[in-house]
Each structure stands twice: as structure tokens, then as C-alpha cells.
Amino acid sequence: MQIGIIGTGGFSETHCNLLEQMDDVRVSAVCGTSLAKAERFAQKWRGVAAYGDVNQMLDQEKLDAVYICVPPFAHGALEKAVIERNIPFFIEKPIALDDELPAELLARIEEKSLITSVGYHFRYTDATQRAIELLQGRTVGMALGTWMGDMPRVGWWRKQEGSGGQFLEQTTHMVDLLRYTLGEVTEVYAAYANRVMHQVEEDVTVADVGTVTLKLASGAVANISNTCILPISDQAGLQIYTDHGVLQIQSNQLVDRTKGETYTLQNQSNPYALENKAFIHAVRTGDTQYIRSTYQDAIQSQRIATAALRSAATGAPVTL
Ligand SMILES: NC(=O)c1ccc[n+]([C@@H]2O[C@H](COP(=O)([O-])OP(=O)(O)OC[C@H]3O[C@@H](n4cnc5c(N)ncnc54)[C@H](O)[C@@H]3O)[C@@H](O)[C@H]2O)c1
Description:
Layout: E1 2-6, H1 10-20, E2 26-31, H2 35-42, E3 49-51, H3 54-60, E4 65-68, H4 77-84, E5 89-91, H5 100-112, E6 116-118, H6 126-135, E7 140-148, H7 160-163, H8 166-169, H9 172-182, E8 185-193, H10 197-200, E9 209-216, E10 221-227, E11 236-242, E12 245-250, E13 253-258, E14 261-266, H11 271-285, H12 295-314, E15 318-319
Parallel strand pairs: 1-2, 1-4, 2-3, 4-5, 5-6, 7-10
Antiparallel strand pairs: 7-11, 8-9, 8-15, 9-10, 11-12, 12-13, 13-14
The structure holds nicotinamide-adenine-dinucleotide.
């Protein structure tokens, strides 16, 4: 299978490395914002053609699938070019800055019945899968999600019009994990503030602390909070409080604390490898059952982040 990659940054590299390890899969082309950047990226692997224009890459190469690994602000024309040519695609989260573009793209995707997959990799961890099993027969009261850390150093991240802010760009993983494990969200209420980062770094327009209260269709409630003011990486994960005890889903493990017992499960498999395997299998065979996040599903996680932004701006809860 011939794969094309759009984007020449850190996560294109992660996917490229994983794809190159798979049988009968080759990354045959990469497209960047300039030919020079694509050439620099392509040099790291053998036989990867470099392009500075997406239409040129899609017309000259015979690609079975495309990976789109670009920042939130860069979505739109890239997907349209891929969909127009009926090419299945894997896309990194978040899928956009707003709700309008994803709705427009989804209509085109559905019209063509295209296979899509979104990089919500927490869905593929051993911890998440085991948590879903353990939740059977337990009543969920509430959940607390966190993404506490420092500010990523890439320029686009600190600008609201570049990344959409931490909750939309990063903490979306926890929002998606909440939906995946506990079901849909019906209402959000958010409070954001700029406390530190605009004073220590130039051009910072994203909020650097935020807390979002969520109501779920099940009747449970949740809070997901984040900050990027820390000089270190602190905790990121989802704690689920049930009538049996506390389930903690972290990036590397699951901890289940019930009365008199603590059970810990360390992740054995690589969730990024699993999401790639599921997507490539789907493109090769048409069997999409192993894809755990489609474009259609990811739109719901996106809607929660944009609703939180609106709530933080107006000070009022937003019903979904
Ligand atoms: N799932 C995860 O765990 C995970 C981890 C890291 C990043 N990501 C996501 O991956 C995406 C990319 O992140 P990154 O860390 O690679 O960022 P990055 O800044 O390292 O790279 C982004 C790349 O996109 C390229 N780009 C921008 N506009 C483009 C266009 N129109 N055409 C072609 N290329 C274009 C830039 O030149 C740059 O090379 C982000 O949405 C991020 O949230 C996901």
C-alpha cells in the first residue's frame, strides 16, 4: 500500500515510523508547506517523494491512503483535495478550529462513503479497554478529567486562531475519552482565564487555565480541567467515580480502587500502532470494525470543545 503524509512535523514523523514498520506498507510521498520542508522530512526515509503542494502530490502519486497531521488552523482545503479524489484518510485530532468545517466535510465524506480514522489514541489503550469492561455493572456518579502541564513550544499552539486553545487542542483527548467510556454529553459550562503565560511568552492569546463542567445523557456529571502554566508535565487522565470505587485511566496504566483492593494494569500495547493497524486493515479489506474513532464520531468531541469556548466567552451554560 502506498501512503501519502500531509504535514512535516513531530506527529507526521511518529506515524511515518509506525507505517514503515508495517508489512506491505510504504510511505511514498510527503507534502509540507514548502518543498524544502518536505525534502528535509523525506531525507529521513528511503524512497519518499517530497512535495510543496498537496494537489500536485495527489495527482502525481497513486496513493491508497493519506495521513493528515497538521495544526487545527490548517484544516479545510487539504481534506477537500483528498476527499475529491476518493482517498481514505487518517486525520490527527482536533479535526478543526470550529464546527462548521467538519459538518461540511462530513457531508462530502458520507456522500463518497470514505473510510476515515481520527487520532484519538486513548481509545486504543489497554487501560481504556479494561476500564470499559470493569464499568459493566457499576453505576457511574461522576468523572474528573485533567490535562495539566507546560505549553508546547510550537508557535501556532499559543495563538487562539492557531490552535483553538488548550481545551480544544490537547484536552480534547479527555473529552473524547469521557464520551467513549461514559457516553454523550448534553451540556457544558466553562470558565477560562489567562493567568501567567501571556506575561512570560510573546503572542500568547490562548487561555492558560480552564475548567469545564459537563452533564452527561446518563445523568452523571463531570469536570475536565486543564492548565499549561506549569514548568513540568503533571497529570493527564480521567478518574471515574462509581458505586464500586474509583477507576483511573492514565496514559500508561489503569488503576481500579475498590473496597480492600487496588488493581493496576500497565499498558502493554502501543495505542498509536494499534490505530494505524486498524486504519490500514480497513483500507486494505474494507473491514472498518477495528477503527474506534471515525470522522463522524470525532465531530461530537469537537462540538463539546467549541461549546466550552462559547460558554467561557458568554459565562452561560451551552446545551448540546
Ligand atoms: N494523537 C496525539 O497524541 C498527538 C500528539 C501530537 C500531535 N498531535 C496532533 O497532530 C497535529 C500536528 O501536530 P505536530 O505535533 O505534528 O505539529 P508540528 O507543528 O510539529 O507540525 C505541523 C506540521 O504541519 C505542517 N502544515 C501546516 N499547514 C500545512 C499545509 N497547509 N500543508 C502541509 N503541511 C502543513 C507544518 O509545516 C508542520 O510541519 C496537531 O493537530 C496535534 O494536535 C496528536
